[in-house]
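Appendix B. Worked example

We walk through a single record from start to finish. Start with the input: the chain for Phosphoethanolamine transferase, Bombella pollinis, length 556.
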Amino acid sequence: MIKQPRRHTKRLITLAWLGLYLLLSLFIANNCELAQHRLAFCLASLFVPLCVLSCGRFLACCLSVPLASLIIANLYIIIHYHKITYDMCMAIAGTDRADAATMLRTIPITPFLLASLLLGGVLYATARAARFRPLHALIGFIGCALTFTIALHRPLNRDVAGHYNVAITYDALHHRYVNSPYFAKNLAFYINLPGFIGNSLAIFALKQGYQQTKSYRHSLTFAPHEHINSAILPGRVVGEKNIILIIGESDAARHHGLYGYTEQDTTPHLRTLAAQGALCAMSNAHSAANMTHNAVPMMISFLTPQDRRAILTEKNLIELARAHGYKTLWVGSHEGTSLYNSPIGYLSGFSEQVVRPDYSTLPLTVREHDDESLLPALQHQLEIYRQEPAGHFIIIHLIGSHVSYREKTTPEDRHALPRAGSYDQAIHHVDHLIATILQMVEQTLPHSTLLYSADHGEILTSPDNGMHGVYDGGQEQYRIPIYFAGLHHASYCQQAEALRQTDGTFSQLMEKYILLTMMGYQLAPEALHAARQQDLILHSDGETYDYNRLPGPKAP
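Next comes the structure step. The output line below is what the pipeline stores for this chain.
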């Protein structure tokens, strides 16, 4: 009389365990942007819990912890970012330990407490439902193997797979950059195994993907590319003596005073420079992507949302600067060999002199994610350049106001804005960095023109936390500040005004044409006209959208 109710309870717990697993799997699959055959795979994936619950109580509990943890992690990403895209899987796979630790510190304690409660509930239910049934475990294992085999052999849409045919990565074994097809290859996990299983396997495969480069004999060299973009005409005129490009990070225009922000005085130096007529700002400007590894290459090369192979086939801005006699320097607080940053590291290698946390051609060092450490290295080089007759093209890549924001501030920023959130304090520090660099340049290379542009914007969820790369985040994560300063800056602002898209916005994609003009290149009017007709961006789902037709709300 006692065993029957217990058996009935165990069956109810087992059904609840399986039902919750199925519902969560389907929910996650439906929030994976490119996933196919969602329901069919989620039903087939029931072989996973069948196998787990048939392995005996102890082993089942051990296996259920990572299983539940993966589900919880996927749920958190969906709640936070609304969708899980393949580009997001690439970003997670490419995050190193330091970045991961920084990101984890930005998560409030509440999600960790909820995750602990859920894990405790899963362990309890697993302990009650699990039994040692070797035949069922074998059936579950075979079912998993067949499901995964069938799914991974389904053909991929050529257009979707083609988006990831340019996959620049660093081969740590041979110390070289290669273009490998594993981004497209591992896309099968994400598309054909929808849900947390496919996402997790895709991230793991991407993380281990650099091992596949061992078999590639042809590395990407830093020899100048042969082809020049068709917008560039033969001949040259006299360009600016020195050109400084500062690339910001996660910088939202709406938190800058010159863009109408009044809650905090986040940009006192820039405001003062603008009042003195020493700086101008581009209104209604937006980035060309909402993730760094897409946005920065589009600033330095002719890679566009429509042509992603241009980074491998056409001369980039560093090569073009060198062709016109400029000495080139890249100094930045981002490393350049992780899965996520490899395209940026590859481009930086075209510079004659490079100073990154992981690589330096000079007897100088900088610290990862520490913009303050860039200043002494930059000052050292500027003092040397003061004595040289040649012109210079200098790229400074900041970590800027990337999360975690508080780590990007100093006591001076917190003292200046004691009632502000850490994001505004981080913007205050970016303002200090730009002003400091401008002062250095004026003292050492007075005949210089400077362009500051963030790689993308940021969506603030609180004064101390935010995000980008959100599938349905709309335009806010694209709205960026762009400033011109130094010699002839007003004329370049006028040129930028003339290069606005036909919808009235200024696209980051047009910055390269202004930089080329600074270098003395002549540009074909018809090419510039064609570039202004479309306002395209490369979104975090790997798709190309018109800026005014992005998924989600428009920025105010």
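Two observations about the output. The longest strand covers residues 242-248. DSSP finds 23 helices and 18 strands in the chain.
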